[in-house]
Amino acid sequence: MLLKSIHRILFACGLILGFHLIANxxxxxxxxxxxxxxxxxxxxxxxxxHRLDKIPLKWIRTDFDWAGIQHTPDDWNYSRLDRLLxxxxxxxxxxxxxxxxxxxxxxxxxxxxxxxxxxxxxxVSRYGxxxxxxxVWNEPNGFWEKPARPEDYSLLLKRSYEVIKAIDPELQVLYxxxxxxxxxxxxxxFQAGAADSFDIMNIHPYQDGDTPEQILxxxxxxxxxxxxxxxxxxxxxxxxxxxxxADQDSTLDHLVAEAVTAAFRRLGIPEGKHRLxxxxxxxxxxxxxxxxxxxxxxxxxxxxxDEIATLSPEEYPVLVPTSNExxxxxxxxxxxxxxxxxxxxxxxxxxxxxxxxxxxxxGTLRKVQxxxxxxxxxxxxxxxxxxxxxxxxxxxxxxxxxxxxxALTNRWTGKAGARFLDDxxxxxxxxxxxxxxxxxxxxxxxxIALYELNSDLKGNIIVNTEMHLGKCVSPExxxxxxxxxxxxxxxxxxxxxxxxxxxxxxxxxxxxxxxFGIAHRDLSPKPAYYAFQALAKLCPDGSTxxxxxxxxxxxxxxxxxxxxxxxxxxxxxxxPEECSLTAEGTITGAYDLYGRPRELPAKTLxxxxxxxxxxxxxxxxxxxxVGK
Length: 628
Description:
The protein is of the alpha/beta class. The chain has 11 helices and 31 strands. Strands 7-6-5-2-1-23-10-9-8 form a 9-stranded parallel beta sheet, covered by helices on one side. An 8-stranded mixed beta sheet has the order 12-11-13-14-22-21-20-18. The protein is globular.
């Protein structure tokens, strides 16, 4: 019941704030996409635009980077962008240009504002009569001279805003899209003056391995914070969001699966004898079962955060409390109680408990970075390059730790963000067993390890710090996530959403950055392309803003098309559910994720992560298994 109550509170808050942000309840060109047509893809830009037009999609976000324009202090060259503008105008496409990054003689940009402002002035003056929206920097909380201080970005944004408005007061300035939704960073920038220096708020709410449904509480929290700072009436755009389809069956994934299996065997957990318990509760950040270890269990049992307290290690000897770095600290006692009974925690991705999820007084959830605050209470410890100077920023090898050479048949070499485990918080009676080592020529440490606790804490913890895993999805899941992302964000009040990105680079099968596209390198479509087509056809420009209802895990978005046709999209984030269906009016059409006709439902409907579109009825009511 608590989960349902929180969902209702989040939904209600999201609707109120969303409609406050957008006075006009109809959608106006809500669909955008990122494409590198100003850089390496200029030669194929026209072909890309033609394929995007078939979705149809009219907004493209791309870089107008400073270094690509001013090659030396005396050499300004706009020929590349002039050519791009010719293509754009000939094809009736809107560009969202990003003013970003710096040049070698004016680095960092916020300390060379005269030079930066000259770049802004020249560029916006040249194209401002055609391009009416300008984004100032890309992910200033990440792509920035370290440390990424919000007051420094606020200064750069303020000066840029003044220059752009002096050219034409009607030009629209976008806050630089943040990596994630870092409320503390954004609020600090507002306090430093940024709140008065943009027309459109802008975020990149990537969810890594989480589902799109987590966008809703993040947008609700952002809207509430903007309202507190007097800019709650400004629109919100999402100028990047997406999921990579890098190979989930990669050698690295298999290496981790082998390492975890070796840990299970060391602990005497019999293969194929038990179910794996996995927390799927959205109050915990939104979890998904880990890849490539399910074969070890008879099945995965989804549980709520509240059910951890009653979980029996005899029935469920392994618990995945989170498949990422997020877990609400208010449930740590329940985890420790499970450990005390001899249970095993599997933390399969990233730094343990790096983020807390805190329930706010207004019922919203807030993800808070807590770093090392909570790991010592579990006798865990980690080292990274930003906390320990001896740790390398990149590792160049991974190998089996002593004693596990025969258990690990896969080998991996390459670069990855280095995060290492440590034994400094162990108590007498505890043991620490490295399973996989990594490092470079000067440093070596464990990246996958087993903590066996036999002191004031009991039980076991298996930890993998590798950050590539858990971020990627299959092409089919990417297609499932795309329309759900747009419907959730638009229902919550976002004005425009840009998917990242159109064309996948596909240079490295294991590198997530190379596989975000909804089209392959040769521009042939991936499943998400067709899912985008179906969404844009069934919820076209000019439709009413979707209204989202959440009952248990069943999500229902409904809207009217410009001709008055009622449309509905129905899905569950994780597991399929059988629902009873009551319709007021006739269902004239039913379509799958890709817009293909499917059998019209009668009194029941099986709903899952692959959403279903229903067309015709004024209202539908769904009642699922949750809460019975």
